[in-house]
């Protein structure tokens, strides 16, 4: 496998919609929380492989703004798993030179979780390896709306002319202002939509879909997605040059 890695053109930023935990559990007659726990194991495997491959940014859609509408018991289970991850995994990430980041609306998260996130980000801030980004309480429409609101305030204060607003202005007002746009988006479980995830940032991203539920997805599947990415001709709207 190491020889194969050397031959791959590795995307700088990979984003993942981790879908299918509940259906994975249901297919095995297990409660949904069992699927979420198994999904956390897949996160560990994929993070390890992404780091080995040399991917610079890995963004995982962990909990959407719409997920707050799920039954209270399931939300509590998910928050419990998040607490456990933040308490048990961050030291390991730090030892592997991985930087940890969170994007999303932290105001809806409990204070203890926000504190754990702040501590994890501070601990790993100087690490130079893979940057692991969790999208928590995240929704792309809310993110873009917030960017518009922020830019509008700058215009109203006379700090910016409306005529000077550019795509770069908008990008700089997003959660991902210092993160390059994804080169590759992976979605598991056989669904074919972006589900309010990084809609501005995905403008020129390559998409890879798999029928596998997230708990069945591991490092070898990430390698397969990167291999498929290597087959793409990324023209960014231009015409390919002929020989």
Automatic annotation (TrEMBL):
<feature type="binding site">
    <location>
        <position position="19"/>
    </location>
    <ligand>
        <name>Mg(2+)</name>
    </ligand>
</feature>
<dbReference type="InterPro" id="IPR001441">
    <property type="entry name" value="UPP_synth-like"/>
</dbReference>
<feature type="binding site">
    <location>
        <position position="68"/>
    </location>
    <ligand>
        <name>substrate</name>
    </ligand>
</feature>
<feature type="binding site">
    <location>
        <position position="24"/>
    </location>
    <ligand>
        <name>substrate</name>
    </ligand>
</feature>
<protein>
    <recommendedName>
        <fullName>Isoprenyl transferase</fullName>
        <ecNumber>2.5.1.-</ecNumber>
    </recommendedName>
</protein>
<dbReference type="Pfam" id="PF01255">
    <property type="entry name" value="Prenyltransf"/>
</dbReference>
<feature type="active site">
    <location>
        <position position="19"/>
    </location>
</feature>
<feature type="binding site">
    <location>
        <position position="187"/>
    </location>
    <ligand>
        <name>substrate</name>
    </ligand>
</feature>
<dbReference type="GO" id="GO:0016094">
    <property type="term" value="P:polyprenol biosynthetic process"/>
</dbReference>
<dbReference type="InterPro" id="IPR018520">
    <property type="entry name" value="UPP_synth-like_CS"/>
</dbReference>
<feature type="binding site">
    <location>
        <position position="32"/>
    </location>
    <ligand>
        <name>substrate</name>
    </ligand>
</feature>
<keyword id="KW-0460">Magnesium</keyword>
<feature type="active site" description="Proton acceptor">
    <location>
        <position position="67"/>
    </location>
</feature>
<feature type="binding site">
    <location>
        <begin position="193"/>
        <end position="195"/>
    </location>
    <ligand>
        <name>substrate</name>
    </ligand>
</feature>
<keyword id="KW-0808">Transferase</keyword>
<feature type="binding site">
    <location>
        <position position="206"/>
    </location>
    <ligand>
        <name>Mg(2+)</name>
    </ligand>
</feature>
<feature type="binding site">
    <location>
        <begin position="64"/>
        <end position="66"/>
    </location>
    <ligand>
        <name>substrate</name>
    </ligand>
</feature>
<dbReference type="InterPro" id="IPR036424">
    <property type="entry name" value="UPP_synth-like_sf"/>
</dbReference>
<feature type="binding site">
    <location>
        <begin position="20"/>
        <end position="23"/>
    </location>
    <ligand>
        <name>substrate</name>
    </ligand>
</feature>
<dbReference type="GO" id="GO:0008834">
    <property type="term" value="F:ditrans,polycis-undecaprenyl-diphosphate synthase [(2E,6E)-farnesyl-diphosphate specific] activity"/>
</dbReference>
<feature type="binding site">
    <location>
        <position position="70"/>
    </location>
    <ligand>
        <name>substrate</name>
    </ligand>
</feature>
<dbReference type="GO" id="GO:0000287">
    <property type="term" value="F:magnesium ion binding"/>
</dbReference>
<keyword id="KW-0479">Metal-binding</keyword>
<comment type="subunit">
    <text>Homodimer.</text>
</comment>
<dbReference type="GO" id="GO:0005829">
    <property type="term" value="C:cytosol"/>
</dbReference>
<feature type="binding site">
    <location>
        <position position="36"/>
    </location>
    <ligand>
        <name>substrate</name>
    </ligand>
</feature>
<comment type="function">
    <text>Catalyzes the condensation of isopentenyl diphosphate (IPP) with allylic pyrophosphates generating different type of terpenoids.</text>
</comment>
<comment type="similarity">
    <text>Belongs to the UPP synthase family.</text>
</comment>
